[in-house]
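Lab meeting minutes (informal)
Scribe: AK
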Amino acid sequence: MKKALLSMAFALVSMAGYSQGVLGKWYTEAGDAQVEIYQAGDKLNGKIVWLEKGPETKDTHNTDAKLQSRKLMGVNILSGLTKKSEKWEGGKIYNPKNGKNYKCSIWLDGDQLKVRGYIGVFYETQTWKRKK
């Protein structure tokens, strides 16, 4: 009985820790893409792992003409985020809908991920939902 309770308690603690972390797969606010956030050293990155339009979708809006023919699947759209208190900051986010890069920060708000892109003092915040 003790072992069963201990095992159950460990499983609950493990799940709680996982659900509170930013690592994992997230649906973008529009629901048209899924991004997998992963850690590389002390930085966080996020790559596209699913697209509503399909895996052959190209990066046609990229400002670099050489990259407009690449597939968006596997492209890192989040890069270089560093942990600072309750947020991950100092990184970049790439918006494939307009081909531009922005400064970025992310943080958890309950079971949702807030993703904020900056241009100077102006910003836009999206809410991403975890893939279940």
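Next up, CB showed the second protein from the same session:
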Amino acid sequence: MISSRIDIELLERFEKGLDPLNPHRSEIPAHIIGYGEISTIFEILDPSQQGLAFKRLPIFRTRDEMDQYERLFLEYNRLLGEDIGIRVPSYCLARIYPPQGNMVIYNVQERLPAESICNSIIRNLPPGELATLLRSVLMAMKKVWAYNEANTGIEVGLDSQISNWAISGGPHRSSVFDKAADLIYIDTGTPLMKINGVEQLNSDLFLRSAPSFLVWLIKRFFLDDVLNRYYDFHLVVVDLIANLYKEQRKDVVPLAIDTANSFFETELAELCLKPITLKEVTSYYREDAFIWRLYLALRKFDRFLHTRIFHQPYPYILPGKITR
């Protein structure tokens, strides 16, 4: 059990001595191993925590909020792993109660080898094998939508971009890529689930990391669209393919579109999904890249205001420069 390896006392010391601007200079240093659009994944450089990957959520103001998030997180992981049949890494959650500021939950996972994460795998993957890998991801996604169709009142969402998947045992050739069971879904910290059409994730929690001057705008004009896209198979696949631009594989985008459309026709004919077009993917990526680039710039400006102008702590570890 991964939970038996978590040293709460060490986490408390890590939190107390953390330098969010320079995590590697913290009292207990941290090494960044991956960036998402919002969160940062790191390892704590203490021998007792070797082999663990941490995502820090300093967003909770009450214990009730922590309870609600933990219940949803555990149920989401259980559904994926037990009911739907998608593998997830070993995981646990750990609570920290700093003397000031928001309460913190650390989402801890078994750290997988960097070379097993699919965005690393695809960098030098021949087009034919990449198409096979993409089809395996689509087969895994199909399990989620089949579950949603079979369970009235429950919908599970998925952010299926390629960096959210890993291959069990590291990179292999297409004979392994043919098996969706070899895929591991690693982005389980945003548990997307609807019950009777109502989103169960308290999105206000994640808005707390946004600049205060943007919260009203995001909530009014963007939030519902962003969350709802992860329940729409067509849009999730568009996002998956558009993400290939970010991963520097523009060369395989047309092939990925053909692979997805063929999958729609053969494996998901009953859903009558409209075909994906190159124009749709490129337009989606340009808009998405612009929004996230602007959002990160504004978060850095917000950090500047906190730390340099108002001399207040800024609790979030921001991503570094993201190549797009």
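CB comment: Strands lie at 30-35, 40-44, 52-60, 91-96, 103-110, 154-156, 165-167, 183-185, 193-195, 198-199.
No objections, moving on.
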